[in-house]
Amino acid sequence: MHTEPPRFALIDGNTFYVSCERVFDPTLRGKPTVVLGNGDGCCIALSPEAKALGLKIGTPIFQVPKDIRDRVQVRSANFALYGDLSGRIVTILRGLFPRVEVYSIDENFVDVVGLKDPFATCLEARERILKWVGIPCCAGLGSTRTLAKAGNKLAKDQSKRAVNAGRLAVFHATPQNIDALAVEDVWGVGRRFAARLNAEGVKTAADLAALPLDHVRARYGVVLARTATELRGIACGDLELEEPDRKQLVVSRTFGRDVVDPMDALATFTTVACEKLRKRGLAAGALWVWLDGNPFKGDPFHASRAVPFPFPTQDTAEVLRAVRFLAKSIQDQANRGSGVQAYKRGGVGLTDLVQAQARQADLFFGPDEKAERTMAVLDKINAKWGRGTVGVGTVGWRVGGARPGERRRGSRDAQWRPELKALSPAYTTRWSDLLRVR
Fold first, then answer.
1. Per-residue pLDDT tens for 171-188?
2. Does residue 39 have a pLDDT over 80?
3. What are 315-355's pLDDT values in tens digits?
4. Residues 15, 45: contact at Cβ < 8 Å?
5. Within the chain, what is the greatest distance between any pair of CA atoms?
6. Cβ 307 vs Cβ 286: under 8 Å
7. Residue 402 has pLDDT above 80, yes or no
8. Pairing of the two strands 8-13 and 343-351
9. pLDDT-based confidence at 361, cuts 50/70/90?
10. Cβ-contact 145, 8 below 8 angstroms
11. Looking at the predicted structure, is the pLDDT value of residue 129 above 70?
């Protein structure tokens, strides 16, 4: 096995969503705190104190026993806040490291090659993020991205995610010191492979690295063989500095209540999906729409429809026409039986995505340049004045859900929007929510 100096580091915000809430609400520090996802349904982030009470990621909040629920501080997911703080962290990292890969909202890989003291630089990054943003982080170093990820997990274990952990919050992982990392915690292993590996006696990351690569490839495939190779200190990949082109864009929600006519919701999802599409310079070759009944009321209804576009499009109006056609088809099918079908969840997916500049027109179809210029103007207006300032038709614009007591905007019946009962203010992105210091 090779023992190489570190090439990469992974810097990860500890219990990121909860930490973001604690930055502006210090009363949450040290208390069991839960962040709820779509429509205040399931737990998507837990503080260590909440985990100690037995709560798990993905648990519906209504299933939590009342005695535990009364001891937990609950917050609705505030993605505007989380995204803004994440961007501030990336800005700090780009001032310290030559290259940064934004891996997720709370994780960033960085290049440490050429740095005089990578360990000290990672420690400095952690201290700056804690002081300037308020988010406690851990950092893992390694000669490969997999070892850096392993080092991050070991740093969290040895530091106990403490805010003032200091040097314990940074760990340089090598093939010789990863025996304390359980194999199920190795990046890319997953539960299914972990169970099979455990049955073979492979309990730790070091055990996986010691397996013959031919055996791993034959039994588990080339992806896990690559993971084992990287655990040996042999890099199989570099940082991905640009996001690869997506194959599809999906926007979906669980509705705040059952709705009979979901078109207002689907139109909103379409608008958001098309905005994301144009922002990435892509065009959609096909459309996918689906609607579900309410499984909590014993309604198993599910239906989906898909349709290709004659020519890959970026035009929200064209996509909306297709969405209405598909939604009506689903509703006609659902209402053929007894009664009127109500829906609890729906979504829109744009698929067969291609680069807009790479589209090839033919004799019959080509880009609608006038419509796409209109969309470009619409995007500029909304970017300056806020989403929903200008749109196509009547759409319920408040993507994050209405706050308690807030008047809903959009169609005459936007009750499909989940009411986020514990949504914290948008402290950093909305003038009206700025903290006032007396």
1. 999 999 999 999 999 998
2. no
3. 999 999 999 999 999 998 888 766 788 999 999 999 999 99
4. yes
5. 73
6. yes
7. no
8. unpaired
9. confident
10. yes
11. yes
pLDDT digits 0-9 by tens, 297-314: 888 899 999 999 999 999
Q: How far apart are CA 104 and CA 107, in angstroms?
A: 5
Task: For 236-261, give the DSSP string.
Answer: ------SPPPPSEEEEEEEEEEEES-
Long-range contacts of 363-367 (CB under 8 A, 24+ apart): 364/310, 365/310, 365/311, 366/311, 367/311, 367/313
Element (H, E) at 111: strand 107-111
CA distance 226 to 69: 43
Distances (CA, A) of 142 to 88, 161, 217, 220, 404: 24, 20, 23, 24, 47
Q: What is the rounded CA–CA span in Å between residue 284 and residue 355? A: 9
Single-letter residue type at 11: I
Q: Which of helix, strand or coil describes residue 364? A: coil
**% of the chain surpassing 70 pLDDT:** 93
Listing DSSP states for 273-320 in one string gives: HHHHHHHTTEEEEEEEEEEE--GGGT---EEEEEEEEEEEE--HHHHH
Structure confidence at residue 436 (pLDDT) = 83
Concatenate the DSSP letters of all residues of 326-362 into one string.
HHHHHHHHHTTSSS---EEEEEEEEES-EEGGG----
Which tokens go with 13? Answer: 């915000």
* Cα R_g (the chain), whole angstroms: 24
Query: What is d(CA 259, CA 273) in angstroms, rounded to the nearest whole number?
Result: 21
As a whole number of angstroms, the distance between CA 207 and CA 178 comes to: 9
Report which DSSP code applies to 265. Answer: H
Q: What was the pLDDT predicted at 358? A: 86
Reduce the DSSP state of residue 208 to 3 states and report it.
helix
For residue 270, give the 3-state DSSP assignment: helix
Sorted by sequence, the CB contacts under 8 Å of residue 391 that are 6+ apart come out as: 271, 378, 382, 397
Helix, strand, or coil (residue 205): helix
Contact 173/142 with Cβ under 8 angstroms?
A: yes
Query: What's the pLDDT at 254?
Result: 85
Give the closest residue to 266 by CA, choosing from 78, 414, 76: 414
Distance between start and end Cα atoms, the chain: 60
